[in-house]
Amino acid sequence: MAAQKKKRAAPVRKRRPLLRIGAGLLAAVVLTGGAIGGAGWWRYTAPGPLPVAAALDIPHGGYASTIAALQQGHALSANGLDGYVFRAAIALTRDEGQLHAAELMFPAHASMRDILSVLRHGKPVLHQLTVPEGLTASQIMVLVQAAPFMKGTVAALGEGEALPETYSYLRDSDRTALVTRMKQAMQRQVEAVWKGRDPSIGLTDPTQMVTLASMVEKETGLPEERPRIARVFLNRLSKGMKLQSDPTTVYALNGGAGPLGRPLVRSDLAFQSPYNTYVTVGLPPGPICSPGLAALQAVAHPASGDELYFVATGSGGSHFASSLDEHNRNVSAFRNRAQGRETAEPVYSP
């Protein structure tokens, strides 16, 4: 019986080393897994290589194209380990939302966690194009055509059809679509201003208002003068006088290509064109630029008064007058300040 007990106890003593080895292997696996997990977490939360905040264009496609774009933009290291960790992070955090393809802004030294947050929740980068008041249609078309990060060519644009303001757009936006937005914005503003106009101004339709506003826009850069200049033109229209606006002559000479590049001379004032208000009575056949909202409002709500003339002061403003004699004195004063040099500023005559 004792021998039998010894034979039964022997296998027990043989299994103990196996148990110790198994436990050791399990502990090693746990420790190794923990180490790998810890290293992965460190890589996931550690600052990334992006030196400064940057907008990166993330293309449509799978994870590979996203990772490639991030690596090319230096937001993600190009080593294989970071690519593996990033892929694993995408999979493990998939419940937080889908990754988006767009031009996105990534902060400097963004960690993988930061990058995934931007890819899932960041808003696309908006680019901006400012259209200043007083540009002609041809100038606006050049501006839109030169706008960065857009595609396509500029559609036809009529004079005075685009509203001057700042427009936001996404990368790869279509230029024709942007021009359409400019037209729609102008239509809305014109309709609103025309609806609220002072009915005593005597204009018969919104196009006349835009045309006169374009002249006011080009005549002065001083906001406080716009309603007063609008009143001068409206007074002259009501009396059947020629408007005699220099900007209309410039437009007649070069078709809205921009500044003439030289002062007007008296022979220019005789140039035969329906846009030259020195030779025609009434408004030009259409706008000579795109007026801003302030110029439209100035025509819709002009200043009061009986003034019929204005001339530049030589220092950015204008001298206004109700009579030709007073205006001629203002012109003489302007010429004296110009030290006797020939000036293109004419003496308006009724």
Question: What can you tell me about this protein's structure?
Answer:
The protein is mainly alpha-helical and 350 residues long. It folds into 3 domains: 41-124, no CATH class; 126-186, no CATH class; 198-337, no CATH class. 49% of the residues lie in helices and 9% in strands. It has 12 helices and 8 strands. It has helices at residues 2-45, 63-72, 80-92, 112-121, 137-146, 175-195, 206-219, 226-238, 246-254, 266-269, 293-300, 324-337, and strands at residues 54-57, 103-106, 126-130, 150-151, 166-170, 173-174, 309-312, 318-321. The strands form 4 sheets. Strands 1-2 form a two-stranded antiparallel sheet. It has a two-stranded antiparallel ribbon with strand order 3-5. A two-stranded parallel sheet has the order 4-6. Residues 1-7, 17-35 and 341-350 have low confidence and may be disordered.
- What order do the strands of the largest sheet run in, or round the barrel if closed? 1-2
pLDDT averaged over residues = 87
Task: List unreliable stretches of 5+ residues.
Answer: 1-7, 17-35, 341-350
Shape designation: elongated
**Biggest sheet details:** 2 strands, antiparallel
Estimated radius of gyration: 37 Å
Number of helices: 12
Total domains: 3
Secondary structural class: mainly alpha
